[in-house]
Automatic annotation (TrEMBL), chain A:
This is Peptidoglycan glycosyltransferase MrdB. It is found in: Cell inner membrane; Membrane. Keywords: Cell inner membrane, Cell membrane, Cell shape, Cell wall biogenesis/degradation, Glycosyltransferase, Membrane, Peptidoglycan synthesis, Transferase, Transmembrane, Transmembrane helix. Its EC number is 2.4.99.28. The gene is rodA. GO terms for cellular component: cell division site; plasma membrane. One of its GO terms (biological process) is regulation of cell shape. It comes from Neptunomonas marina. The chain crosses the membrane at residues 31-51, 87-107, 173-189, 196-215, 275-301, 313-332, 352-371. Peptidoglycan polymerase that is essential for cell wall elongation.
UniProtKB/TrEMBL annotation, chain B:
The chain crosses the membrane at residues 21-41. This is Peptidoglycan D,D-transpeptidase MrdA. The gene is mrdA. GO terms for cellular component: plasma membrane. Belongs to the transpeptidase family. MrdA subfamily. Catalyzes cross-linking of the peptidoglycan cell wall. Zn(2+) binds at residues 352, 367, 373, 387. Binds one Zn(2+) ion per subunit. Its main location: membrane. It comes from Neptunomonas marina. Residues 270-618 form the Penicillin-binding protein transpeptidase domain. It is a single-pass membrane protein. Residues 64-236 form the Penicillin-binding protein dimerisation domain. Gene3D superfamilies: DD-peptidase/beta-lactamase superfamily, Penicillin-binding protein 2a (Domain 2), Penicillin-binding protein 2a, domain 3. Keywords: Carboxypeptidase, Cell inner membrane, Cell membrane, Cell shape, Cell wall biogenesis/degradation, Hydrolase, Membrane, Metal-binding, Peptidoglycan synthesis, Protease, Transmembrane, Transmembrane helix, Zinc.
Length: 380, 635
């Protein structure tokens, strides 16, 4: 399968014009990637059974979500990139309006407004934005000569900044970070000049104090706790101390599946959602974590490989951004649970229990597959 | 600003993308490497530290209460038992915010008083281990347990728990001898080893239960348990069993105690009986008593105020704390003081016109008998008839210092018992004592009063019984005690007894050494005369006695009678009637029991107290029970 993909990706060879395409190519899916995602999902359900305290209801609900995610993946893979590029600005516009709507009419919990309630159901507009922002930026830049000029960079940043700020206002630091990253990755892949990159990094470093000023109290508290968790061992430092204890006590080989004392005896908070990596580290040890990271590397590698084969500029940028954003999930999540980064609400992709993130991530992979498989049709 | 229009260079863009994709992948690998490094640091380098932290999280030491030792009488009859009792408790962690509705629901199911709710809230506020349930009501009936059981599903966090609690099968008959246990309070907890009492809810509050608390309590056991984050025990990892408390065998003879208690029913009275050879307290009765079982799980306010406000003072332990003027019952000792100190010869006689005065025309100290006892009253007659004038004269000549010295040697004015923590020393007057407490010198009149056991001298029934035992022993001291020994199972299946080593045992006086040891027999003979002599004040009880009794009656004034007044019982309220007293031991030649009887406002020692003593001695020496024996003595 892979070799055929490879051949198809070489337009100069012209093989694809001579060889009769198989039925598989009509699905617009990538077999390797699907297999890796299925492996990841299976692993996620396996550890969720333990992290939820052997609660089959949790596992089956998560499986249903994964199914929904797979449907979203298959559906989005069928949309042609050209269609997506054309619709991107409109969906982006609607998305921004919805985010404004969240600020005005949103509902939520724990002091954050993240949902729009419609009769019968409610949804998080920021999840739509996760998908649409890279499409929007890529659509904008792909029409322009690359590397982008300063002016185009500026407008791209405005388009990135608008939803980022709106989501930060909700407040949802984790999501706004992921969305900003997804847009910036498009810029980076577009070939933006290194001197701009370094200048931006310098400016960002200088702007950190400003960021501190706009942060909410609870966000500042998280940063302070991150810097010194022992300062408040029973309050906000509890989470990070317990997760580090869970990870560290797991050792190389772990305490065994279903036998992690930190997680099974409820010392580890959020053990089935954001902190699930601590359960893996405690029960399956460093070996388990490394195996999981290996799967992630394979997914990211395969994703970048697919992106690199895309001939169309728009598709390439979108694909690259989706893959790197996926990596940001992984890094920020594991980094925060292991105490390398402050606690921001980012789930471990496909493993953490939780509603929308799995569907959004799967949909992202659907877009990636669409970009990858529709490339020949874009050649004019 | 003419810049050449740039065109899209698809190949260049593709190359740039691929280059950056490779860079990105390398960056991803680098960052994953950072994560792996972090994991290595936490899981390998710092593993031991975190493993220890994880164990500290989950492993707790949980104390297990030892079973309290039982208490038996001298013949092995169980006096204090542990019985399962069911209480309903609430687990706050599980009830959470629904505490009030749960309480309201509970009160619909079983009766719970406002007071109990109030006490429950107080307990809830006290410091406790997480996941330690808090009792709401104790002593559930079968029906209440059943009613709770069918409603369990509606009341999460509500539990019926079984505990062993103290039960006193003989209730108020033994309360003043045994004491009781009650729920331990903060102050008591501060006085004991908190580790050893970590799981204990009850502690000895009074009496033997209090004194032998360390022996009865036992040693706490520990369970190493795994708990979850909220403290709920998930499983037991290892455990050290508690060491149960040791069983006590008391000197109390339950049969005698019950008979004695029955004799005193309806009276405010006390009888203490001692085995003179050993100091064993055979019976220690103070009536009225009260039911100690009420106090074990916390007495209700209603019950408590009923006891506290009763004019008969049931809570008051008369045997150990009741201070009574001993009246004529001290005469054997004041007589001994007079003749042994050679203040008067043993042949001393007085003329008794019915009164005595220190100087002609001075204040008249009355004899209890208006006409007096005749012109030539010697010691033998003075004892038999309890002639006050002989003692006034002898007491005046003996002086306070001698009398105080001899009385002290018999245990007056001090606690001599081994293991009765509530015992009071009462008062033994002396020159120095009067100066200290009254800021007055000792007057000769005080000596006269002391010689007949009135005035400043105050003694408890236990002290009188002890003095009686010392007289019975001809001066040899035995320390009154409640404990026969700690029961230890023997290899042959029997039970052995041994005395525990006490930290700071109560001392008792040295044996009474007389200058003239022959006076012991003289004194005992005189006391026998009281009962068996034809003019003895207690001759009624001696008439048909199959053994020799040595005794001394006493009648203590409760109100002062003025110089020219007569004591007329009919005109006085019962509470101003004289106290009736009697001390005795028997058989006189080889005493097996010594006792003291006090009946408050009972009238005369000879008419009220002596017959009671006779019945107690019959019960002990002859094995008589109350019913079959006709009331001989009260004829």
């Amino acid at each position: 399968m892979s070799s055929r993909d490879f051949e198809r990706s070489m337009p100069e060879s012209g093989h694809h014009l001579q060889r009769k395409p198989s039925w598989w190519s009509y699905t617009h899916l990538d077999g390797w990637m699907l297999a890796l995602l299925a492996l990841l999902c299976g692993f996620g359900l396996f550890i969720l059974y333990s992290a939820s305290g052997k609660d089959v209801a949790y596992v089956s609900r998560q499986a249903v979500r994964m199914g929904a995610g797979f449907v979203a993946l298959v559906v989005l893979a069928q949309f042609s990139p050209r269609l997506m590029a054309r619709w991107a600005p409109w969906v982006y516009g609607v998305g921004v309006l919805l985010l404004v709507g969240v600020i005005l009419f949103g509902v939520g919990a724990k002091g954050a407004q993240r949902w729009l309630a419609l009769p019968g159901f409610r949804f998080q507009p920021s999840e739509i934005m996760k998908l649409i922002l890279p499409l929007m930026i890529a659509a904008y830049l792909a029409k322009r000569p690359l590397p982008p000029s300063l002016k185009h960079c500026f407008w791209s940043l405005v388009m990135i900044g608008l939803p980022t700020v709106l989501i930060m206002k909700q407040p949802d630091l984790g999501t706004s970070l992921l969305i900003a990253a997804s847009g910036i990755f498009v810029l980076l892949f577009s070939g933006i000049r290194w001197r701009y990159i370094f200048a931006a990094l310098g400016a960002a470093g200088a702007a950190l104090p400003g960021l501190w000023m706009v942060m909410k109290d609870y966000q500042r508290q998280r940063v302070l706790t991150f810097l010194d968790p022992e300062s408040d061992p029973l309050g906000s430092g509890w989470n990070i101390i317990q997760s580090k204890t869970a990870i560290g006590s797991g050792g190389v080989w772990g305490k065994g599946w279903l036998s992690g004392t930190q997680s099974q005896l409820d010392f580890l908070p959020e053990s089935h959602t954001d902190f699930i990596i601590a359960v893996i580290a405690e029960e399956l040890g460093m070996i388990g974590v490394i195996l999981l990271l290996a799967v992630y590397i394979l997914i990211i590698g395969r994703g970048l490989w697919m992106a690199a084969q895309i001939q169309d500029c728009f598709g390439r940028l979108v694909a690259g951004s989706i893959v790197l954003t996926f990596f940001v999930y992984v890094f920020v999540n594991i980094g925060m649970v292991s105490g390398l980064l402050p606690v921001v609400g980012v789930p471990l992709p496909m493993v953490s229990y939780g509603g929308t993130s799995i569907v959004t991530l799967m949909a992202g992979f659907g877009i990636l597959m669409s970009m990858h498989t529709h490339k020949q049709m874009l050649l004019r | 600003m003419s810049r050449p229009e740039r065109f899209k260079d698809h190949h260049q863009e593709g190359r740039t993308f691929r280059f950056r994709a490779v860079l990105a992948f390398l960056f991803v690998l680098l960052m994953i490497g950072v994560l792996v490094g972090r994991m290595y640091y936490l899981q390998v380098v710092e593993h031991d530290r975190y493993a220890a932290m994880s164990d500290n999280n989950r492993v707790q030491l949980k104390p297990v209460a030892p079973t309290r030792g039982l208490i038996y009488d001298r013949n092995g009859i169980l006096l204090a038992d542990n019985r399962p009792s069911y209480s309903v408790t609430i687990l706050k962690e599980e009830v959470g915010k629904a505490l009030e509705p749960t309480l309201a629901e509970l009160r619909k199911l079983i009766p719970i008083t406002d007071k109990e709710v109030e006490r429950f809230r107080k307990r809830l506020k006290q410091r406790r281990r997480p996941y330690e349930s808090v009792p709401v009501r104790f002593r559930l009936t079968e029906e209440e347990i059943a009613r709770l059981a069918v409603n369990y599903h509606r009341l999460p966090g509500v539990q019926v728990e079984a505990n062993l609690i103290r039960y006193y099968p003989y209730g108020e008959s033994l309360v003043h001898a045994l004491g009781y246990v009650g729920r331990i309070n903060q102050r008591e907890l501060a006085a004991v080893d908190p580790d050893n009492y970590a799981a204990t809810h009850y502690i000895g509050k009074l009496g033997v239960e209090k004194f032998y608390e360390p022996t009865l309590h036992g040693e706490v056991g520990w369970q190493k348990v795994e708990t979850n984050a909220r403290g709920r025990v998930m499983r037991v990892l290892e455990s050290t069993d508690p060491v149960p408390g040791e069983d006590l065998q008391l000197t109390i003879d339950l049969r005698l105690q019950l008979i004695t208690e029955k004799l005193l029913q309806g009276e405010k009275a006390s009888i203490v009986a001692i085995e003179p050879k050993t100091g064993d307290i055979l019976a220690l009765v103070s009536t009225p008593g009260y039911d100690p079982n009420l106090f074990v799980t916390g007495i209700s306010t209603k019950d408590y105020s009923r006891l506290r406000d009763s004019p008969d003072l049931p809570l008051f332990n008369r045997a150990l704390r009741g201070g009574y003027p001993p009246g004529s019952t001290v005469k054997p000792i004041t007589a001994l003081a007079a003749i042994d100190s050679e203040s008067v010869p043993e042949t001393h006689t007085v003329r008794d016109p019915g009164w005595y005065s220190l100087r002609p025309g001075g204040r008249r100290y009355r004899d209890w008998k208006r006409g007096g006892h005749g012109n030539k009253v010697d010691l033998k007659l003075a004892m038999a008839q309890s002639c006050d004038v002989w003692f006034y004269d002898a007491g005046y000549k003996t002086g306070i210092d001698n009398m105080s010295d001899y009385l002290g040697r018999f245990g007056f004015g001090q606690v001599t018992s081994l293991d009765l923590p509530e015992a009071l020393p009462a008062v033994l007057p002396s020159r120095e004592w009067k100066k200290r407490t009254r800021r007055l010198p000792w007057y000769p009149g005080d000596s006269l009063n002391l010689s007949i056991g009135q005035g400043f001298l105050v003694a408890t029934p236990l002290q009188l019984a002890t003095a009686s035992a010392v007289l019975a022993n001809r001066g040899k001291w035995v320390q009154p005690k409640m404990l026969k020994g700690v029961r230890t199972p023997l290899d042959d299946g029997g039970v052995g007894l041994n005395m525990p080593v006490l930290d700071n045992p109560q001392s008792h006086p040295k044996d009474v050494e007389l200058n003239h040891p022959e006076f012991w027999d003289l004194t005992v003979d005189n006391m026998v005369e009281v009962v068996h002599g034809e003019r003895g004040t207690a001759r009624k009880i001696g008439l048909d006695a199959p053994y020799t009794i040595a005794g001394k009656t006493g009648t203590a004034q409760v109100v002062g009678i003025k110089q020219d007044e007569r004591y007329d019982a009919d005109k006085l309220e019962k509470r101003f009637h004289d106290h009736a007293l009697f001390i005795a031991f028997a058989p006189a030649e080889d005493p097996k029991i010594a006792l003291a009887v006090i009946v408050e406002n009972g009238g005369g020692g000879s008419s009220t107290a002596a017959p009671l003593a006779r019945k107690v001695m019959d019960a002990y020496l002859l094995g008589d029970d109350l019913e079959p024996k006709p009331e001989v003595a009260s004829e």
